[in-house]
């Protein structure tokens, strides 16, 4: 069956007793044992929960993995995976990284003796040079957030395998509908399911998918030991969101094309970052490893003075943190998602104070383009004078 079908059919027919089409929410935290030494497969809800199992089986299949694990948030998923590593271990990480992941690595896990080197993973020579005897994994975010730089996953995997490193991919921006890193050789995929997988800006969740039974058992142990698991109600909400993933991603993407093309033409904008544009420097790499471009578009305004006026004038698009929901959002990475990254690093990477990030929703493209155009027009008029 195709991915679209598998997603829609998630949980259907799995509650055999009742035949419920939508798999029910099992709130029970404890499950009766038929007799000594026997189990229904469910004992205690942290270890396994029937509603969460439906979600975990669905994401494992969607990502072509062997096991899925649902966590309380994307950060909980990252933290759980980091439980694989021990004091003294070193990881190579995407330079342009989600701010929360950077914060976890630098302000929490560094205290446990893990070290991280941030490298532009598009430069495989630099990645090779960063490998040390104590290096254990390469942590990839592609596209990067918010600059939409694309890492060649196959190339990184090849290098990782040569040095016996794990390849971990944060697939939040692409979703398995557009990109399946495990099929390209990665070992672990993780998601902030709060974004596209949930899709409605109403559930906080994280997912991990593993390849291979050994790695799956290690993560299963960590997932249960750490206990940052997803609750049954949120598991149910996430399954419901994922049923429409394919339809939503198609619309996110076509709307992103419409918005990116319009932004490119506007005199208030100096640069547009969208991997779907033929002129994007990594466009060909993206096409070679993914079946789509998703719906995230970043752009730079001409001057920092325009930022406030632009945001203030948005009517349809909400000025809000997060991404991947049906509603369009605009984020200012400098003060929101990337505020915890020191200014000099942020600017070195290219996350400057003229950069804005759009999560293009599934509204009518004409309405989105009209709203962005009027806010951009207004940003050019400050204090009544056209600059
Ligand atoms: C949001 C996000 C996370 C963190 O996920 P939460 O669900 O907010 O904890 C991690 N990685 C990326 C790429 C994200 O966008």
TrEMBL record:
GO terms for biological process: methionine biosynthetic process; transsulfuration. GO terms for molecular function: carbon-sulfur lyase activity; cystathionine gamma-synthase activity; pyridoxal phosphate binding. It comes from the Bacteria. GO terms for cellular component: cytoplasm. Its cofactor is pyridoxal 5'-phosphate. Its EC number is 2.5.1.48. InterPro entries: Cys/Met-Metab_PyrdxlP-dep_enz (IPR000277), Cys_met_metab_PP (IPR054542), PyrdxlP-dep_Trfase (IPR015424), PyrdxlP-dep_Trfase_major (IPR015421), PyrdxlP-dep_Trfase_small (IPR015422). The modification N6-(pyridoxal phosphate)lysine is found at residue 195. Keywords: Pyridoxal phosphate, Transferase. PANTHER family: CYSTATHIONINE GAMMA-SYNTHASE, TRANS-SULFURATION ENZYME FAMILY MEMBER. Belongs to the trans-sulfuration enzymes family. This is Cystathionine gamma-synthase. It comes from Brevibacillus reuszeri.
């Amino acid at each position: 069956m195709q991915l679209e079908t598998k997603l829609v059919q998630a949980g259907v027919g799995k509650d055999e007793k009742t035949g419920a089409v939508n798999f029910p929410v099992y709130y029970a935290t404890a499950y009766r044992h038929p007799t000594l030494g026997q189990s229904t497969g469910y004992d205690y809800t942290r270890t396994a929960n029937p509603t969460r199992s439906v979600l975990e089986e669905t994401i494992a299949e969607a990502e072509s993995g062997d096991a899925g694990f649902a966590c309380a948030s994307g950060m909980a998923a990252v933290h759980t995976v980091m439980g694989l590593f021990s004091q003294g271990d070193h990881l190579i990480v995407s330079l342009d990284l989600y701010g929360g992941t950077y914060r976890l690595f630098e302000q929490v896990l560094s205290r446990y003796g893990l070290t991280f080197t941030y490298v532009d993973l598009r430069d495989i020579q630099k990645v090779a040079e960063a490998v040390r005897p104590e290096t254990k994994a390469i942590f990839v975010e592609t596209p990067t957030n918010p600059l939409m730089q694309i890492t060649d996953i196959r190339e990184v995997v090849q290098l990782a395998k040569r040095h016996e490193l794990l390849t971990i991919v944060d697939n939040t921006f692409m979703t398995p509908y557009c990109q399946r890193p495990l099929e390209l050789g990665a070992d672990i995929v993780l998601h902030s399911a709060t974004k596209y997988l949930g899709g409605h800006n109403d559930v906080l969740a994280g997912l991990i998918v593993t390849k291979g039974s050994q790695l799956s058992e290690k993560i299963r142990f960590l997932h249960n030991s750490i206990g940052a698991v997803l609750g049954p109600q949120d598991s149910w909400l996430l399954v419901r969101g994922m049923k429409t993933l394919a339809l939503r991603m198609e619309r996110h993407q076509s709307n992103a094309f419409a918005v990116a093309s319009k932004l490119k033409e506007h005199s208030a904008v100096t640069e547009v970052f969208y991997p779907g544009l033929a002129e994007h420097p990594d466009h060909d790499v993206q096409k070679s490893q993914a079946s789509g471009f998703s719906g995230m578009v970043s752009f730079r305004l001409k001057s920092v003075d325009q930022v406030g006026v632009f945001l203030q004038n948005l009517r349809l698009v909400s000025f809000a943190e997060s991404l991947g929901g049906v509603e369009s959002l605009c984020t200012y990475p400098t003060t929101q998602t990337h505020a915890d990254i020191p200014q000099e690093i942020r600017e070195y990477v290219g996350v400057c104070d003229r950069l804005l990030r759009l999560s293009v929703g599934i509204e009518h493209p004409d309405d989105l383009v009209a709203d962005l155009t009027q806010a951009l027009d207004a940003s050019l008029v400050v204090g009544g004078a056209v600059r």
